[in-house]
Structure formats: structure tokens, C-alpha cells
Amino acid sequence: MLNWSDLHPGDARPAAAGPAATALLAAALQPEDSVLIAGPHAADLITAAAVQVTSVDLLVRSAPDAEELAELLSTTKGEVFCGSLDRFPLDHKSGGYDVVVALDGLERLVGPDTAKFSWGEALARLQGQLAPGGRLLLGAENSFGFQRLVQPDIAAALPRDEDWGRDVADRAPAGLKPLTAALQEALAAHAGSVRTYAVFPSLTQAEVALSAVDGFAGVVAARHVASRNDGPVLMDPYRVVLDAAAAGLGVELAPAWYFVVGADARSVLPAGVVPEGEGVLLEEHLLLALRCDDQAELRRVIPGYVAWLAAGGAGSPDNVILDGASYRLFGEPQELDVVEHLERFAKRALESGSRQPWPAAADPHALTARLAAMAGITVPEREFNPDEVIRPRGSAEQLATVARLADELAHASARAILFEGTVSGIRRSLPYRVGHAVLNPARVIRRRLKRVLRKVRR
Q1: Closest to 202 measured CA to CA, from 181, 180, 228, 234
Q2: Which part of the chain has CATH 3.40.50.150?
Q3: CB-based contact 238:394 (threshold 8 Å)
Q4: Cα 226 to chain center, whole Å?
Q5: How far apart are CA 370 and CA 378, in angstroms?
Q6: On the chain, which terminus has fewer CB atoms closer than 10 Å, C or N?
Q7: 390, 365 in Cβ contact below 8 A?
Q8: Do you know which SUPFAM superfamilies this protein is assigned to (predicted)?
Q9: CA 17, CA 20: separation in Å to the nearest integer?
Q10: DSSP code of residue 168
Q11: CA-CA distance, 206 to 184, in Å (whole number)?
């Protein structure tokens, strides 16, 4: 493709990149390997692979990209091929490659001049480039991942430069199970198992790759998805990922996957991004107590957390792990005072649309004051500022909040009607009328005597 670039796209998605991709290559590649990198990969990812192995060959469909990469790898042993995968000869490399890397997937290995080349045929062609016992590193996008639930692509129906006509059979299998089954069937004769990683937040920005999305790994995944979707959303991305992880659906709904065949790698990439040990995120524990209206648990945990902060701890509840009666940091320290830590939790709780057991604590300051009081801390009153009202993060949470407030308003209106009826009944009762008839003349005489006394004093 002469007038096209996958490294510097106009309205197309960029090339595969990210710390997780770099960590995967570092774990899978060996110094004596010959490697084929097929498809768009970021330049820093390619150079990172080139310094680890004996030789690196590149296959890209863009002529400008091929020229740029050839200049970048001028001192590296290997070649840069420009063209489609269906025209790349199987017998090009004598004995095959030790590793074939296609972390961007298989969709961008051909151009518009390829009339028909299915996903299965592309996989078979890549497999044919492998030496016996070789390793395959493959990426794939999830067509129904968290991004469809959180922030659908409203421009998906608009024509883009890369939306040229293709055969209907060229699409990849949809979903993790069909994709895994297709891989296992295609690689049945290949020695080595298929290991799957859930990639967050995308193939083009692979910050973390996880073999299991549960526990603290679910929190890490939720943070990355939330950081990528900071605009208007249908549902709170952080909560959606955590709820899916709790239901065991974190891997199936991941935005993308890595499939590693015949290579060994850690269960978490890069290493160290997921905390080890037992416990639960303090924020999740407190939110559960709020939803269940377990005030006894709140009064037990909040004082312990405040005492930990006073002893030198430096983390808000969303960055602290609760393990029994002990506390430890989840990530980097946060230099805030006790009230600011509690206020951060209050704001995040209101943004999540979580149920609050106290109707009066509907703003961050009121909820912060109530939580601080559980630890014996008095938060000074301050004038209400409408700008401090926290709006739930997603449209679904906003609708749930509106429904909850409407229900509370209906109950309050019913209580007002009941009170008004009770007062009206009292006024119509005989004792009230008798008392009113007796006391009313006395009030009139008392007022008149006061006026006479004021005149005498003058």
C-alpha cells in the first residue's frame, strides 16, 4: 500500500504497543531466536525485540512504514518485507522462524487488493512460517468487550479509509470460546499449549495482560479501563469491570486477548503490577457495608483505618488493602490528611451511584462528616455549594439515582400527607375545640392588658 501508514494512521487505529506487549516479548524471546513480526507494531516494540534475538524479519503492508522501519533497523540482522500475508511465500525462511509475532491480530495483514483471505487462512499461513516446535504470539480484539458496555463507538457506522470491501468470511470468530476453539483446531498438530491473556485497555495500548481477572487483578484491570474512558459513559467503567470480575467474566469481556502458543510467560504482564497476598480492597469493603446498611461494620473498620493513617499510612480507601484488622497500600502513597482521604472515598461512592443508608448524606461533605464522626473526628460545617453535588459516573447509575430519589420523595410526600391528616383530625376533635374555646378568650384579655400597661408606663 503506497499511500498508507499503520504506524502514523489518519482515521484508523494505531499499531500494537504497550508495556504488556514489551513484557510478553521479553519473556517469550530467546537470544538465538529468528523472529518474524507480522503486521503493525510500534517502533519501540520492534526495536525492543530486535535487541533480544539473533535476527528479526518484518512483514508490513504499508510502503512508507516499510521504509521507516528499514532505516530504523539498518544495523540489525534481518529484512523488511512490504506486502500482504497471502503473497508472502511459505518457503521464504529455510527451516522456518523460531517465533512468529502478530500481537496486532490478523485483520491488518492484507490490503484492499486481497479479494478473499479468511481469518483461518491467515492463521494457517502464519503457522506455516513456524519452525518445528516454534512459538506463536497472537493478538485478537474482542468485538463484544467492556468497551461495548461502557462507551460504544458512535462513529462505527461512519465510513473510514480502511473500510474497504471485504469478503464476509474474512471476519475472526466472535468471542473467546469460538476463538480459542478455532486456535486449538488449527494448531492441533503443533506441540505446545495455548495460553490466554486478557489485555487491558486495548491492543494498541496494552498496559497489562492477565491470565486471570479476579481479586486484585480485577482492580488493576478496572483502573485501566476507567482511565481510558474518562468522558460520558453508559455505565461506570470501574464498577462494570469489577462486577464482571466478581462474576467470573473478566477474561471473556476483556477488550482484547493475547494467545501464547509454545512459550512460557508469567501470569501477569508486566510483572509486579498486581499486588500479592490476601485481603480485599478497602473501598469495596466499605461500599458493600453501605449497600447492606451494615453500620456496625462501618463503625468497626473506619476507626481502624483512621488509626492506620495516623500511624503513617498514606492511602485512600481505593488504594488500601484490608486484610483482617491490618491495612497496607495497594499502589503509590497519597499525601492527603485524614479528612481528605475520607472525602475522596465519599466522592467515589457517590459517583458510583452506590446506595447510601443516610438520606441526609447526599453530598460529599455530609457523607465525609458522618464517616469521620465514626472515628471521633468533627468536620466543621460549611456553606452548601451546588457545584459540590456529585453526579453518578454513568448514565445507568444516574437513572438508578433518579429512581431512588423519586422513591424517597414519594415516601416523604406520603408522610407529609399522613401528618397533615393527623393534624386535621386533631383540630376536628371535641377536646381540641373545647380547649380552643376556653383558651381563646384568655388570649384576647391578655393581649388587651398588655396594651393598657404599655399606655400607663408612657
Answers
A1: 228
A2: 19-269
A3: no
A4: 4
A5: 9
A6: C
A7: no
A8: S-adenosyl-L-methionine-dependent methyltransferases
A9: 8
A10: G
A11: 24
Split the chain (458 residues) into runs of 10 and give each run's mean pLDDT.
83 89 95 95 94 94 92 88 89 87 92 83 91 93 91 68 62 87 81 86 95 96 92 90 95 96 91 93 94 92 95 93 94 91 92 78 82 92 70 85 83 89 85 74 74 77
pLDDT given for residue 166 in this prediction: 63
The CATH number given to 19-269 is: 3.40.50.150
Written as nine digits, the cell of 67 is 521504509
What does the block give as the cell for 457? Answer: 408606663
Place of cell 500482504: 84
- Residue 304 is placed in which grid cell? 481502624
Residue with cell 487505529: 13
Contacts of residue 362, defined as CB under 8 A and 6 or more positions apart, other chains included, come to 350, 356
C-alpha cell at 269: 504482564
Run of H or E residues at 448: helix 430-457
Hey, is 260 helix, strand or coil?
strand
3 state SS of 172: coil
pLDDT on residue 345? 94
H helix or E strand, kind and range, residue 416: helix 395-428
Q: Which residues are CB-neighbours of 365 under 8 A, at least 6 positions away?
A: 343, 379, 382, 388
Only one residue has cell 499510612, namely 313
